[in-house]
Structure prediction request, 266 residues.
Amino acid sequence: MRIHQYEKIWIVGAMILIVGFIVTITYGSVGLGITMIGDEEETIAPDELNDDEQFGEPRVEQVGENEYAAYVVAQTFIFQPDPIEIPANNEITFHVTSRDVIHGFYVPGTNINAMAIPGQVAKLTVEFDEPGEYGLICHEYCGSAHHTMEGLIVVQPEDEFDLTELSAETPDTVAPGDEVQLNATVENGQLEPLETTVNAEIGGQTFQRDVTVDGNSSQNVTFTVESDQLGEGEYDWSVSVDDYEETGSVEVVPNGTAETEGGEGP
Ligand code: CUA
Prediction:
């Protein structure tokens, strides 16, 4: 069979085009790593968010060396947590879901752009090189106050970032002769152990305690003062760890007027 010269050229040209189409489509769907939210992606019932291990308390967690996960809940008309504090030069994976309607999760000037869909978890991994504050806006119409729905991402220099939390308490009142106990808890949300010093002051008396808090755990520290050394009156107390401080006051009251601890009924 004799095929005309021009026909051969067209046949070859058409073949090249067909192969070209197949290659670009394959590359576009597989090679670029673009993923859509599909059936196999994480899902979560919006009304069960409060019971969820991660979204029950939206927060930033360290998940590996130089890797963090940020669990973010969008709802009318706020983002939680707010601000979202993360370290620079680390891989951050945002897990974003919605408690109610569809919201947007968009950081202008970056490629951070996702939809927060109730029932689904959008995942995106980014790294911020520049410390600073980045505005976060909802760019999906979600209701009457949609235009006010915004959050903040605070990128801290890597060496200043921590996931330390301090809480402290004393009873409101203490009877003479009893001890004034100041209970402090230092929480370390990072994987590396935290070696630090807890400083405390109760009514002018100062204390210092070195602590090592294991990764992803917390440690209690108790400071005590004899109320007889203080005498009746109201005393301020404070506890600090690194840049964190908690303050309050405790009152030493005459015998018989102190509130009973433990909350046993009359
Ligand atoms: Cu949320 Cu618009």
